Amino acid sequence: MIAAVLPMIPPRPNVLLHFLLVIACLLCSPFPAYASALVPQRIASLNLCTDQLLLMLVPRTRIASVTDWAARPDSSYMAAAAQGIPANHGSVETVLPQNPDLILAGEYTDVTLLQSLQRLGYRVETVSVPQNLAQARAYILHVGELVGAEAAAQRLVAAMDRRLRRIDAAVAGAQTSELAAVYAPNGMTVGRGAVLTEIIERAGWRNLGSELPMRGYGQISLEQLLAAQPRLLVLDITTASRGDSIAHSYLAHPALTALKQRTRTVVIPPTLSECVGPNTVDAIELLVAQRELGAMPR
User: Fold this and answer.
1) Could you tell me the pLDDT band of residue 249, with boundaries at 50, 70 and 90?
2) Rounded (10°) CA dihedral 12, 15, 21, 22
3) Picking from 53-62, 121-130, 151-160, 263-272, which range would have the lowest pLDDT averaged per residue?
4) What angle do CA 26, 150, 88 make, to 5 degrees?
5) How far, in Å, CA of 78 to CA of 48, rounded?
6) Cβ(112)–Cβ(91) under 8 Å?
7) Which residues are within 8 A (CB) of 166 and not within 5 positions of it... i.e. 6 or more apart?
8) Taking a C-beta distance cutoff of 8 angstroms, is the pair 228, 183 a contact?
9) How far, in whole angstroms, is CA 245 from its chain's centroid?
10) What pTM did the predictor assign?
11) Do residue 114 and residue 184 come from a single domain?
12) Domain that holds residue 276
C-alpha cells in the first residue's frame, strides 16, 4: 500500500520524510489505543430499562443523562445510583446540551425524536427490551458491547445465573406446587408469556392464569378467583402506594377481604417487575420466600 502511494508524493525530501514518519507511527501504535478512543464516554439513555442497566454497567462519570424516571424510588430499581445524574425528558432540547456520544433507546421510544437526533449526527442505538429472563441475557451482553463494558455485562449475567441455579435447586426439592393468582384492578390477571407468570412459576408456584388457559394479560371475575382458592394472592403492583382509584375499589370487596385472611398475600412492586433483569431474580426470591414460610391453614 505504501509503495502505491509513494509515486503520488512530490519528490521533495522534507515531504517524503514526513510521510514516512506518519506511516511508521501508524504501524507502530498499538491497536487498543485506537479502540479505547471509540468507547463512549458520554452516554444518554431515553428508556427506563436502559437507564437501569446502564447504571449497573458503567461508572456514573460516563453517563451524560438518564430519564427522569430513573431516580424515582417507586419506579426504578437503581434509584439510589441515579441520584445526581442529569435527567433528560425525552426531548431534543434536553438531550443536545448534554452532548452525548451514544444515545440508548428502547424500541418504543418516540421515533420522531430518534430520527431528529440521527439527522443531527448523533449515534443512536435502539435495543429491544427483554420480555423474559432468556432474552435478558442477550440484552445485557449486547448493551455491554455498545457501551464498552463487556466484562461487566458478563459478570452481571453470571451473577444472575448463579442466583437462578440456587432458586431452581431450592424449588426442585420442595413439595408439589401450590396455586398462585395475580389479581389487579378491573379483574386483570396474567397468563402464559407474561414476565410476572415466569416469576411465579420459576418460584415454584402454579399460576392460575396459565391454567385457565390465558396468554398475556386478561380478565377473571372475582367468582373465578374465589372458586380457584389460590394459596398465594399477588395483588396489583400499585396497591401499596396508589390504591385510591375507582379501579382499585375491588380491594374493599368483602369476599376478597375474606380470601386475603386465609391466603398469603404479596405485592410485587414496579421496581421488581417492569424491567427484566437482576431485579426479576429479586422478585422470584420474594415468592420463593413465601413458599418457605410453610402452608397456611385452610
Assistant:
1) low
2) -140
3) 263-272
4) 100
5) 10
6) no
7) none
8) no
9) 28
10) 0.81
11) no
12) 176-292
Query: What nine digits make up the cell of 208?
Result: 392460575
- CB contact at 8 A, 260 and 227: no
Q: If you search the block for the grid coordinates 448523533, which residue do you land on? A: 122
What is the identity of the amino acid at 274? E
Amino acid at 97: P
Q: In the structure grid, which three cell numbers stand for residue 272, read together?
A: 421488581
217-219 and 188-190 strand pairing:
antiparallel
Widest pairwise Cα distance in the chain: 98
Residue identified by cell 456520544 is 101
Residue 77 resides in a domain: yes
* Domain edge (last residue) among 161, 189, 210: 161
Cell numbers 430518534: residue: 114
What whole-number distance in Å separates Cα of residue 140 and Cα of residue 173? Answer: 30
Helix axes 48-57, 133-146, angle to 10 degrees: 60
* Strand, coil or helix: 178: coil
